[in-house]
Amino acid sequence: MSALRDALLRGRKRPRARGSGSTALRRGDGFEFSELRAYAPGDDPRRIDWAATARTGDLQTRVLHEDVCLVLAAIVDESQSMSLGRTAPLAEDAAAALRAWFDAADVEDRCMRIAGDTLIAPAMRGLRSAAACLLSPLPRFSLRESLDLARAVLPRGCALLAISDFFDLDDPDDAILSELGARLDCTALLARDPWIDGLPLRGFVTLVDAETQEEQRFYLGRRERERFMRAACAREASLLARFEAAGWRCGVMAEGSGAHALFAAFGLQ
Amino acid sequence: MSIERPLWLVVCALAAVLFLWALRRAQAHRSASALHYSNLAFAREALRMRRWPERVLHALTVAAASLLALGAGGLHVPLPHVVHNGTVMVCIDTSGSMAATDIDPTRWSAARDAAAAFVHETPSGTRVGIVSFATGAQLIAAPTENRDSVLAALDDLPSPNGATAIGDALQLAGAQLPPAGSRAIIVITDGVNNRGVDPLTVAQELGARHVAVYTVGIGTQSGGVIPGTGEEATIDEDALRAYAQAGGGAYARVDSAGSLRDVLGRLGRATSIAIAPADATAFCAFASGILFAVSVLFGMWIGRFP
Lengths: 269, 306
Fold this sequence. Notes:
The structure holds two protein chains of two kinds. Chain A has two domains: 47 residues, no CATH class; 195 residues, Rossmann fold (3-Layer(aba) Sandwich), CATH 3.40.50. In chain A, the strands form three sheets. A six-stranded mixed β-sheet of chain A has the order 5-4-3-6-7-10, with helices on both faces. Chain A has a two-stranded antiparallel ribbon with strand order 1-2. A two-stranded antiparallel sheet of chain A has the order 8-9. By secondary structure, chain A is α/β, with parallel strands linked by helices. In chain A, helix 3 packs antiparallel against helix 4, helix 3 crosses helix 8 and helix 5 runs parallel beside helix 6. Chain A is built from eight helices and ten strands. In chain A, helix 6 links the parallel strand 6 and strand 7. By secondary structure, chain B is of the alpha/beta class. Chain B folds into two domains: 95 residues, no CATH class; 197 residues, Rossmann fold, CATH 3.40.50. Helices cover 47% and strands 21% of the residues of chain B. Chain B contains ten helices and twelve strands. In chain B, a hairpin with a 6-residue loop joins strand 9 and strand 10. Classes of the chains: A alpha/beta, B alpha/beta. Chains A and B meet through strand 8, strand 9 and helix 7 of A and strand 2 and helix 2 of B.
């Protein structure tokens, strides 16, 4: 089992497990034995191991692994703003993180992908389902529409990964994030601004909006560059705070970090 | 201000406009300094664009081009310059009222001392002459560049006595002036014209000859008593102002020896400085070159060039 899947299982938002009363979510009404431990009030009496009780003289409870299958869903920003980067497009890192995400799928797990108003939900399971999600052509991307569709169609407890620069989220209404965070196991990977450490040009510079192709000339002096860096850092910190407040797991995908950023968001090396 | 070669001015102005237009177009098509960014709205808010560097650069370039065009057009601008061959006649009232002591020690002494200071301060090359007037006019010193002789002649200034013949003094002073060049007459008086020819007529004649007439009224507001007569010395300010206007000069009222010296000092500068059109071509070319160099350096500094 991949470390990522393990982390997802450990972190799933589920009611307390039946049987052992443990919050370790891999333990529950399965068949695979996990451990034997002293009886605790509230444990299901059917899980008491009488042989072990007879041997030890105290009540012993059998704790079992829960049999679960995950639903891995992903929203990856495919807009032109992700085609930017200092040395390589952010989209390449996003693709690497997405591959790592779907690689976590086990045999019985299902994979889904949302792009705009389109849901790609292959009938297959496991890695075949992941491959279908990775290879399917995608329509025009819209973060708002994708989040709306995720709220509408994804099942409770589903693991959702969203990778974007989240410029479309600058609307302060976080209701949809909170709603998704409450229902799903959500992870946000914020694509770090490639120029957060300083814009590469100085003097009069024409900035072109990667998505709308709108142009505007700016004067980039020392103060402007510093101001830009401060604003980019503040924006990143603000977005992370908003996701955390909405109950999302979040991380920053710096250029070149790709899958590592995803693992780092889960606290994995 | 005048333009010697207006056609050149137009041609250069057009060339400058064309050059600036071509430069602007070239820069608009330059892609080297274009940067794609994820979200222009965020950049706009984060950068809070400064417009002054571009405005300064535009102003420098336009000023340089304008100066170049003006220089090519042969700009002449009226500039003040010191006249070294001017002639100034100082007419000093020596009528009885000049013995009044409302100005320390007397009006006569103050006028003589101020005239001496005036002679000292006139630029070299300017000829100065002295005329005294009372019941009639008397030439004390003919116009000369020799300061010492004029100062020595001032020592022979007659004592205060008699009436006031301002018109005669103007006539005599006018007769001493050369027919051309920078010429001026300064009249220092404390009274009312009561003898001789009409000063206004003479002033008008002098004005027609481009001789500037300056009048200085001397005496305190309260006036003074003419010693030995008991009469009060009065000044006909309206008349003095009219003489000055007719002669294209100015009138000033002084009530102390110090202010008289100040007024004469100002008049000395005014009579020794003339406004004449000067060829500004070299200045325009030099200033234009400097401004072009500054604008290129400034443009490089702010990243506009190359």
